[in-house]
Known about the structure:
Blueprint: H1 2-29, E1 33-38, H2 49-52, E2 55-67, E3 70-86, E4 91-118, H3 121-130, H4 140-145, E5 146-149, H5 153-159, H6 162-169, E6 177-190, H7 200-217, E7 223-229, E8 240-246
Antiparallel strand pairs: 1-2, 2-3, 3-4, 4-5, 4-6, 7-8
Amino acid sequence: MAGWFVSSIVMGIIRTLKRAQNMAGAAQELGLKFTAWMGPESAPRFGTELFQSGSAGGCHDVMTGNFAGLDVQVFDYSRNTGVPGYSTDTARTVAVTVAQTVAVYTQNVDLPAFTLEAASFAGKIVDAIQHQKVDLDSAPDFSRQYAVHGVEKDRIRSLFNDRLVSFLGGLDRSHGWHIEGAGKALVLYRYGRRVKPAELRDFLQETSTIAQSFFAYAGAKAASVVAEQDPGKGPSHGKWSVSVKVGGF
Length: 249
């Protein structure tokens, strides 16, 4: 029994090191900076549900840089959560470690803290306890497929305008995306799923496409576009930079 336990630990370490090696190679191909491990005290933290619930187990295979014109951090994030379990005579809580590959894109916006996930029976139970579900009365079909949660409900309703809801409703539900936001950060992941090194580029292409559209549609009703012309240049020859400021957030 002891030999099997030691053997499983050694095999786990070997798999971790092999994955880190392969992810480092994939990161280099994409021009991303790679760090094999960040402990809970130094790991990136964001104000979304994923990073607030449970206890953090740190980040593996952390990659930072720019992809598709967006600042991004990609990493394997694990957290320890408690789930109900039972012994023969008493109820108890069982600690479970869940790991997933997470992509975090940042923009100069101020998003309310929210969580978007596919609607589920378990989610309804949580809603009944926490009372954080945000009802989008203007999009009943979307609300039947997805659950949106957050404390600042009015700000979240303003964020989820018709264009953003239409875009999100068109995503392939079979991919199981969890989308969270807070402040400047938009967090995307599939719960409990890690990306293989060979799939990293595809993962970034898909998540960056979602992030670009999300930032473009977010707060469209209240957004103002500010065009700043380089000084000393005429309107037909000047270089224009456009920034989107999300009003009301």
